[in-house]
Model the fold of this input.
Amino acid sequence: MTQQSNDTPRTDFKLQLEDLSTEELTVLWQAESVEFVWDLSDLTALWQQQLDASIIADLSLNVAGDTLQFKSLCSDAVPPIATFRELLNHPSAPPHLLDAVRRWTKIRAAAPEGTGVGPIAGVLYYVTIAVGLRLAYPRPTKLTREALKIGFEWALEQGFLDAQTRNLLESARLRCIEKS
Done:
């Protein structure tokens, strides 16, 4: 990435982030030093806020794609999906919607350091993959089983997770170990 002064806007950052591999993004998420800015209760509140946020509103702002398609995927699901929490707990979450959220987390990881968004986006990235694995969707990611196991372990180390998310990630991590 090109080094720029703090006064120069990063107009190219989104494009560069979308070009990063998942392994490079994991390093970026892990490198963010939020412990100096956010305490655990702040990150917990951010995580809960993200889970309760509108999928359509968030995806429409940051993901290349048709907002009408996102709306259709959410409203056509049975039961309908409005929030990230509903998507992650859905018995048959639409794979295209999970993929859009996964791509959206890569964009969110570009938030300025210290905002607390990096770890939230990183965990959400792995949780969407875990949902895809739980629902036995073919190939929800190009990551190897070993890379997934490491990513799930990193996500499980985050202290802001609720019990339901932690159980989902742990089940996915165990699936990776069993199939190795």
Remarks:
- Confidence is low (pLDDT under 50) at residues 1-18, 31-36.
- Residues 38-178 form one domain.
